[in-house]
Amino acid sequence: MDTQNTSAPSRARSRNAGKNHPHAGGLVHENARHTTRFTVIGNHLAQHPELSGLAIGLAVHIQSLPAEAHVDIKTLADRFPEGRDRIAAALRELETHGYLRRERQRVPGGRIVTRTISCNQPGRGHTDPAPPTKPTRRPALDKPRSTTLPAVPRPVYPAAELLRTATDILVGLRRHDPRLLLSATDAEHLAPGVAAWLEREVDPSAVRHALTADLPQEDLRRPAALLAHRLTDRLPPPPPFRAPAPPPAIRHPFQNCEGCDRVFRAPDPGRCRDCRGDLPEAA
Predict the structure, then answer these.
(1) pLDDT 10s digit of each residue in the chain, 283 long?
(2) Class of domain 1-133
(3) 246: which DSSP letter?
């Protein structure tokens, strides 16, 4: 962050300009070069036209942290006074604009955990922030639509089974409210949004409740647009990172000692510890 912009006027030039315009207000930089404990932040982040101040501040904080640091919502809420809801919303802003990416990874033991990747320059070399790269989707999800619906969240891993489950949830909404009868095209558009919720470990019944609770009493002229808005506006944060559980202790089967017939645990038949000590070669 201390890298000075050579195109900016020097301190002397800034003060001279102030003398020429004594009544004009403006910023004057008094910069000192950092040599230790600093982080380089691009102006595309510091002056981002769409990110909130909290989102920019969180991005700067996260980029300054060492690898493997905890950046889940609870940890950040303990560090900053804004509270979990505002921090969760700011993290979603950073995800939308490509400064954060969350990836699901399988760890030893079969558990799936979420890793957070901080991107200090979305788009890999572009001066202006590029839209976040969307995960690979089925070709059917990208075909043109006859009516425009709001964009919906996308799952990190759009597996076919996950999308099928999401589609089943959408098709079943009409059982809760007949006004939520969706066309096949609308269900196909909304399915990735539901899959993003399921991927964040939200139970299908909780997804249905979020989409059907407190619906307007008047006629729903565009039910798919309403669902798209709810899927985006109420998207919960990813689950916090949890360290993998240690592997279970190995318990060998019982064996009968060939020397004293005592029962002991061992991977293979043989003698117990006391009898092995009596063997001549053990001396």
Answers:
(1) 444 444 444 444 444 444 455 555 788 888 888 888 888 888 888 899 889 999 999 999 998 898 888 888 888 989 999 888 899 888 988 988 889 888 877 778 777 777 888 888 886 543 344 444 444 444 444 444 445 889 999 998 888 999 999 999 999 999 999 999 999 999 999 999 999 999 999 999 999 999 999 998 877 889 999 999 999 999 999 887 666 677 778 888 888 888 888 888 888 888 888 888 765 554 4
(2) mainly alpha
(3) P
Q: What is the per-residue DSSP string for 131-179?
A: PPPPPP--GGGGS--SS--------SS--HHHHHHHHHHHHGGGGT-GG
Domain-wise residue ranges, the chain = 1-133, 135-245, 246-276
* Global pTM value: 0.39
